[in-house]
Amino acid sequence: MDIKRSDFILILNLEDIHGQKMRVADTAEFTIRVWTNDPTHYLTFKRRDIISDDYNDRIAIDKMQMECLHSGVVVYDYDYSKWNADFSSTDEKYNKVKTVVTDVYWRNVINADNPCNVVNYQTIEHIYDLIEAERLDREQEFHELKDYVGNDFTDKLNAEIKRSNEVDIEFHKLIKTNKEECDTKNTELNDKIDKEIQRSNSVDIEIFNLIKSNADSGKEVTDSITDSLNAEIARSSQKDADLENAINGEITRATNAETVIDNKLEGEIERAKTAEGAIRDAVENERDRAIAKETLINDTLTSEIARAKQVESDITTSLQSLKTAVNEEKQRSADKDTEHTNSLNQLTAKIDTEIERAKDREQHINDDLHAEIDRAKAEEARIENLINSNANADSELSDKLDAEIDRAKAEEKVINDSLQSEITRSTNKDAELAALIADNGTLITDEVKPTKTITNTVETQITKYKQKHLNWGITAGFGYGITTKRPDLFIGLGVQYSF
User: Fold this and answer.
1) pTM surpassing 0.85?
2) Could you give the CA distance from residue 240 to residue 157 in angstroms, rounded to a whole number?
């Protein structure tokens, strides 16, 4: 298996049922599922996908397959089986499933919230399983055909050859026996012919001797001898003719017997050839059937591979389109982020400007407030001096004090109204800026709130000699400092009304 640099390498840490280290090669069957934070969204791998060496077992997962998973810690479970004779009543295997949580975090940078559909790769895996099953079926059929040709067909062919050889041996035995009988009879006939020839020669010699010894006996004796000789010659000729006829008859019988044996042998040969032709035809038919089946399987496999390639091409095209769309979306998002950044910079500049303006306005207000406090203190000192110098002028002082209090209240109301107007304007400006920031989709964690809470506690305690309900004087208290921007003590002019 070729490993690409972009592949995700997952090293397997496997243990058996007893907690001992285990290798994939030690199992009879092995299946592994890989997922992250969603167990229903997983990748499946079989034993053929495992890469093993002398050190460990690992899986090289294609990057496109890993992009089908969510971002999260990589988890896998493996289902394995081992041979065990204790399970002879089933399949002689025991199965075990274990889950392993790794320390590897997978981050899907393409589309973390909505990864690709893993079903496409499971479909490809299913096609791989179909191809593997078809390959195993073809190997099984090839082994069955090989076993049939190597065992059953060979046994039948050997049995037929053995039977044909036995028939040939029987024919040879019959031919040999018939030949021996013919040779015996020919020898007997030859012996009889030789004896008859010897006898005839003996008679001829005897007759010749008689003729030679009795040459002078006269014509009658010669005629008698001639007649006897002619009779003997005729008898001998007849005997020779009988012997020749007997020999010809025996030859004819032997020839006929050999013809019958040849015909039977040729018939047996033709039958053996016919049986051998039938066996050859059966083998040819079986071979043609196997070739046709293999062709059909190859065509089916080719069409399935072509369909799988087309599906894979469609998936690849879809993924390329998705990548193009993702890249376009990333570019659009980057442009939008740049636009948002520019808008945020502009808003930040506006906010900074508004903060400076608010600080200046706040400083002016603080200056006015301190000036008013100083004026009130001076007026309070003047009033105390008037009270100390002229106790009898309480009524006039009370009127002036009331007028001063009314003026101070009016001035304070003007200052408060101005301060409240500034607070309202600044709050509205903040709401406008927050709306602009919300429209741009950018979260500003540090919110700038130029709203200033100014607490003016003016308590005037006045001691009247004639009317004790309204009192005024210098008052000390605790409040929020305008300049210090924190809780602080204060001293000022206070007015109090007692019931």
Assistant:
1) no
2) 55
CB contact at 8 A, 127 and 308 = yes
Rounded to whole angstroms, the Cα distance separating 347 from 459 reads 42
In this predicted model, what pLDDT tens digit does every residue of 128-180 receive, in sequence order? 778 888 888 888 888 888 888 778 878 888 888 888 888 888 888 888 888 88
* Sequence-separated (6 or more) residues with CB below 8 Å from residue 14: 21, 22, 23, 24, 57, 78, 80, 98
* Paired tokens of 34: 């890989």
Least reliable range by pLDDT among 33-42, 113-122, 256-265, 413-422: 113-122
Residue 344 clears pLDDT 70, i.e. is over it: yes
pLDDT of 283 higher than 50: yes
Round to whole Å and give the CA distance between 11 and 242.
Answer: 108
In this model, does residue 486 exceed pLDDT 60? yes
Supply the DSSP symbol for 116: -
Q: Which two structure tokens, joined as six digits, stand for 467? A: 């009317």
CA 286 to chain centre: 38
CA distances to 149, 275, 407, 486 from 287, rounded to whole Å, are 10, 18, 124, 103
Instruction: Specify the DSSP class assigned to residue 50.
Output: -
Alpha helices in 148-218 (DSSP H): 154-213
How far apart are the C-alpha atoms of 182 and 195, rounded to whole Å?
A: 20
CB atoms within 10 A of CB 368: 15
Is 348 exposed, middle or buried, given 0-12, 13-18 or 19+ CB atoms closer than 10 A?
middle
Radius of gyration in angstroms for the set of CA atoms belonging to the chain, rounded to a whole number: 66
Which ranges constitute the DSSP H helices of 45-106?
63-66
Instruction: State mean pLDDT over 183-192.
Output: 84
Beta-bridge partner residues of 494: 473
> Which residue from 180, 16, 35, 304 is spatially nearest to 312, judged by alpha carbons?
304
Q: How many CB atoms lie within 10 A of CB 80?
A: 23
The whole-angstrom distance between residue 105's C-alpha and the CA centroid of its chain comes to 20
If you average pLDDT over every residue of the chain, what do you get?
76
